């Protein structure tokens, strides 16, 4: 649910094993005498000096504070926006955070390692193999929902020529440049979201939603994306289609607002400083966190920030409803029916074709002549 990335920048550059053997004796003795705690303090001081006391932040950043003095800077982004990437980079460089939290889960973390070209190709190639894999991992209904949403994303990708998640990849790269900065995945696992969303819909609502997603074809421009900076583009398009389904909006947006808020507050816990010995008292300093989320989640995070959050309820997956079972049965019956009808049509045409061949007709004529003789 939560993964941490320990950047290479956090490695101890003062380690004695890194000191050149033929260097000055004074430098060698210093690197051998310095402890891990002292090295940590030196790097931490360098980081704190680089951290701006009054950071010049983009207007898409919302500052939140915890009771123990930690600060959380939430960057509201549009998932298909170049300016959002710049906002993320600038915020991380200005505040030099201890933790960066992004609106991703472990099921979507692969987009951090792919380049734009690969992601564009993946988003456009939706085939039967991907559908089978999604259904195998998440079940029939959740798998279909995942593929339909991927189709929406692919539609936007094709219209703009830009792959989603660029702001998350920029956050990952910038976090690796900050000493002792951890990288957390802050979104609820996508199978849980899909299964809860499906459970919230009636049979006809599922059909209507699937129909709307299947026939999405409105053109989108980059100007449209920038106009949506106050609300994430993908979620706005979803909201337009599911506006009449408040339960679906609750599972896809509102519940994830709660989950993201919870993860940001967990990341904002005070940081314990290293001790030279076990007898030394423990010391803590407030943490600085940067959160990178879709702009549509920012109001919900602000609303839930001072609440006592419990996520056990929104992590549970309700059992399939009667309508889900009926839909699953109808879907299977339809698929098998279409396959059977296709086999029948193909077989019928094949027989007709074979019978119409001259060689076949000649052979049949000979067979009919044998009894007469």
Describe the protein:
Residues 1-33 are annotated as: Disordered. By secondary structure, this protein is α/β, with parallel strands linked by helices. It has helices at 25-33, 36-50, 82-95, 116-124, 128-138, 140-160, 166-175, 190-199, 203-214, 222-227, 233-242, 246-267, 298-304, 312-315, 322-356, 358-372; strands at residues 61-65, 71-77, 99-102, 182-185, 271-272, 284-285, 288-294. Strands 1-2-7-3-4 form a 5-stranded mixed beta sheet, sandwiched between helices. Strands 5-6 form a two-stranded antiparallel sheet. It is elongated.
Brief account:
The protein is of the alpha/beta class and 373 residues long.
Alpha-carbon distance between the termini?
A: 83 Å
For the biggest sheet, the summary is:
5 strands, mixed
Radius of gyration, Cα only, in angstroms?
29 Å
Strands, total number: 7
Across the major sheet, the strand order is: 1-2-7-3-4
Q: Which secondary-structure class do the elements indicate?
A: alpha/beta
| Percentage beta strand | 5-15%
Number of helices: 16
Poorly predicted spans: 1-31
Summarize the amount of helix as a percent range.
55-70%
Q: Helix and strand succession?
A: HHEEHEHHHHEHHHHHEEEHHHH
Overall pLDDT confidence: 74
Spatial shape: elongated
